[in-house]
Design goal:
By secondary structure, this protein is α/β, with parallel strands linked by helices. The chain has one domain: NAD(P)-binding Rossmann-like Domain (Rossmann fold, 3-Layer(aba) Sandwich). Helix content is 35%, strand content 16%. The protein is built from eleven helices and 16 strands. The strands form five sheets. It has a seven-stranded parallel beta sheet, with helices on both faces. Helix 1 packs across helix 8, helix 7 runs parallel beside helix 9 and helix 9 crosses helix 11. The protein binds nicotinamide-adenine-dinucleotide. Nicotinamide-adenine-dinucleotide binds next to helix 1, helix 4, strand 5 and strand 10.
Length: 364
């Protein structure tokens, strides 16, 4: 992990929900350095934590409380002892495809999990100075597109009919970068809808109490520490495991789906900046590498790394997946003084290097 620097003076207590997960572990050392006390609340969800044990990637100085954020009793237990100055709210169900069939599970964890946290803070009279929320690019759905005459429109969700006919893009139009000040939310997955609800619940509550909010809309995060067992997330680690086993990586649609892959190190520095920066704006901030790659390109780099056969296009599709997504990161530079530092090639090298050190990793 690259060095992550906190901004401003940030002593006090930080409470991190979902802090034993991929992103939580990656920020834990920097938080231990920046704050006097780091308390993590996580239920060690079995889909992510196969062993049910404290992850070794979680910094030693972080206190782990095993508890479910959706239960009021968790907050009574935690907040009897902890008075957070900053809360970083990461706990969530994160499966985009899975959320279509398990919508209640996603709604409960993501929406009720947020409202229970806020109710707990209220009940115990322990309002923090700031709450940082890890939101998602999924709140934009297909985002805004531009017609050939330059006018912007919202194409909405691609229909099953379009997808069955392999009509992947919207005709005579081009996608645009996701930028909170210019592109309105329009989720096309249940997951995206619950992440948007999280933002709205938090903003309405925090504005009423004068609590600062930093809402970070993350693009596709990948890198060392990513789950190698969760079948519903983490396309990059899945591709690595396929290539490792000598398979040709299958590409959905026509392989030209665009994504903004951002290395975990860059996401970690953005979240730490969000927790510690002196300047905040209430409006959401987009976090990504700032450029797109096609899934085909990412798969080719991975295949080359492992000496696997060329990837192949399958023409399959998945409901809830959007065609193109990438972030305009200018607000992050302006507000947080943050910039991404790693290219996709560097990131894949790091991910593959880390996978090679994992004891029980199985080819997919
Ligand atoms: N990884 C990405 O590509 C990405 C992209 C956009 C947004 N995000 C957001 O970032 C956050 C963290 O994502 P991650 O990649 O670290 O995911 P993760 O699944 O690795 O971590 C989530 C953590 O939350 C915990 N958790 C889940 N439900 C819980 C509950 N009810 N109570 C307590 N803990 C619970 C899990 O045990 C896990 O440790 C999520 O809010 C996610 O929506 C992630």
């Amino acid at each position: 992990m690259a060095t992550i620097e906190a901004q401003g003076s940030s002593r006090g207590t930080v409470l991190v929900t979902g802090g034993a997960g991929f992103i939580g572990c990656a920020i834990s050392s920097a938080l231990v350095d920046a704050f006097d006390r780091v308390v993590v609340v996580d239920n060690l969800h079995p889909q992510i934590h196969a062993s049910g044990e404290r992850p070794k990637e979680l910094a030693e100085g972080a206190e782990l409380v095993i508890g479910d954020v959706t239960e009021a009793a968790t907050w009574d237990r935690v907040l009897a002892d902890v008075a957070p100055d900053v809360v970083i709210h990461l706990a969530a169900e994160t499966g985009t495809g899975q959320s279509l069939e398990e919508s209640s599970r996603h709604a409960i964890a993501n929406v009720v999990g947020t409202s229970q946290l806020l109710d707990g803070l209220n009940r115990h009279g322990k309002l923090p100075r700031r709450i940082v929320l890890s939101s998602s690019r999924a709140i934009y759905g297909e985002g805004a597109w531009k017609r050939t005459d330059g006018t912007q429109f919202y194409p909405g969700q691609r229909t099953s009919e379009m997808l069955d006919q392999a009509q992947w893009d919207f005709s005579d139009a081009a996608p645009t970068a996701m930028r909170a000040s210019e592109v309105a939310p329009a989720p096309v997955s249940v997951y995206g809808a619950t992440k948007l609800a999280q933002e709205h619940v938090l903003q309405a509550w925090a504005k009423s109490y004068g609590v600062e909010t930093v809402i970070l809309r993350l693009q596709n995060v990948y890198g060392p520490g990513q789950s190698l067992i969760n079948p519903y997330t983490g396309i990059m680690s899945l591709f690595c495991r396929m290539a490792m086993g000598g398979k040709s990586i299958p590409l959905y649609e026509d392989g030209n789906v665009r994504r903004d892959f951002i290395l975990i190190d860059d996401v970690a520095s953005a979240i730490v900046a969000g927790a510690t920066s002196e300047k905040v704006v209430g409006e959401p901030i987009d976090i990504g590498s700032g450029e797109f790659q096609t899934i085909g390109t990412a798969a080719e780099i991975i295949a080359r790394h492992y000496g696997a056969p060329e990837p192949h296009v399958t023409g399959q599709y998945r409901q809830g997946d959007v065609r193109h997504a990438w972030a305009d990161v200018s607000a992050a530079k302006e507000v947080l003084g943050w910039e991404p530092r790693f290219s996709l090639g560097q990131g894949i090298e790091r991910l593959a290097g880390w996978i090679a050190t994992q004891p029980d990793v199985q080819p997919a």
